[in-house]
Amino acid sequence: MFARSAARALKSQSRLFSSSAARQTKVAVLGAGGGIGQPLSLLLKCDPLVSSLSLYDIRGAPGVAADVSHIDSSGDVKGYAADQLDAALEGVKVVVIPAGVPRKPGMTRDDLFNTNASIVRDLATAVGRVSPEAHILVISNPVNSTVPIVAETLAKAGVFDPKRVFGVTSLDVVRATRFLAEVTGADPANTPVTVVGGHSGPTIVPLLSQSSYGKAITGESYEKIVHRIQYGGDEVVKAKDGAGSATLSMAYAGAKFTNSLLRGLTGEKGVVTPTFVKSPLFADQGIDFFSSNVELGPNGVEKIHEIGPLSPEEEKLLAACLPELKKNIQKGKSFVGA
Ligand code: NAI
């Protein structure tokens, strides 16, 4: 019994962390003491591509680091206190940012803007100063605005490289894939769903028509699953009843995306996943950040894929996404005076 469940756990761990190349990397988590930061740090400690883990928070990171450092994987772990941000960023190749406040019931992600915008701006400023070559993975919400904030902050410092700034939208992909599997009985490991657009309500556009299982869903079932993918986060916020938003599934999705990037950085070919990046796809409509399938490679963004053929329903979802996304992006840019 134990042997079987252990084998299953190992199999799913290898799905989360494939490592085909030997080169390893120093990764920092900013906000490591939080609801996402703690399990994310745990999962990154288990990733064979992470050689060194730098955990920073304004409170609690040294404790998380001491705890996680006892795990018997090869990577080193060090925790940094509130006044040690620069030291935490020294020599890092990848910075993951889950710092900031989460939603409470009744809040939208945009309601977090006032608090999280300045947190993200200040952290991006420090990354630009100490480790300007680092890849930055933004989890803090509202992602549609915090990613432009990071990009513009780095641009002001003269160190913005669009190949190295990512909004982590993987949780939308994870949810869409899981929810589709629940409806169709498909194995989620083999039926990923592409999700494009942004990361909030109507800006989340699942492309079910591009999945052989997804395209069979029509009518009321289609409406229901799309709504669930767009507002899945609310299920968690409601169930946690004031204690925060998704943390464990987000940590899983964040670790999975980080592993994809690390595989790309180490030279693995064909690593493709949706992520919210500076993108030419809708730039002619004034929307210069967008999530679509992106091939990850040694420099970060290797190739931004077109969104591909859409069903009439998806055309409507995209039409609802674009104006909202444009507003969110502009709000982020205006915050940093861009
Ligand atoms: P939390 O409140 O449990 O943890 C946030 C942590 O950030 C705390 O430990 C806090 O001390 C730390 N922090 C605050 N200011 C900081 C600063 N200046 N420098 C470093 N650390 C700082 O919140 P939780 O649940 O971990 O969520 C974090 C963020 O992730 C929220 O903005 C939430 O909305 C977002 N989120 C994003 C998702 C996505 O799909 N991209 C999914 C779920 C949550």
Automatic annotation (TrEMBL):
Residues in Lactate/malate dehydrogenase C-terminal domain copies: 169-336
Chain ranges of the Lactate/malate dehydrogenase N-terminal domain: 25-167
Enzyme Commission identifier(s): 1.1.1.37
GO biological process per UniProt: carboxylic acid metabolic process; tricarboxylic acid cycle
CC annotations in GO: mitochondrion
Binding residue positions for substrate: 103, 109, 141, 175
Keywords for this protein: NAD, Oxidoreductase, Tricarboxylic acid cycle
Active-site residues, Swiss-Prot/TrEMBL: 199 (proton acceptor)
Subunit structure: Homodimer.
Family classification: Belongs to the LDH/MDH superfamily. MDH type 1 family.
Designated name of the protein: malate dehydrogenase
Species, as recorded: Punctularia strigosozonata (strain HHB-11173) (White-rot fungus)
Organism taxonomic ancestry: Eukaryota, Fungi, Dikarya, Basidiomycota, Agaricomycotina
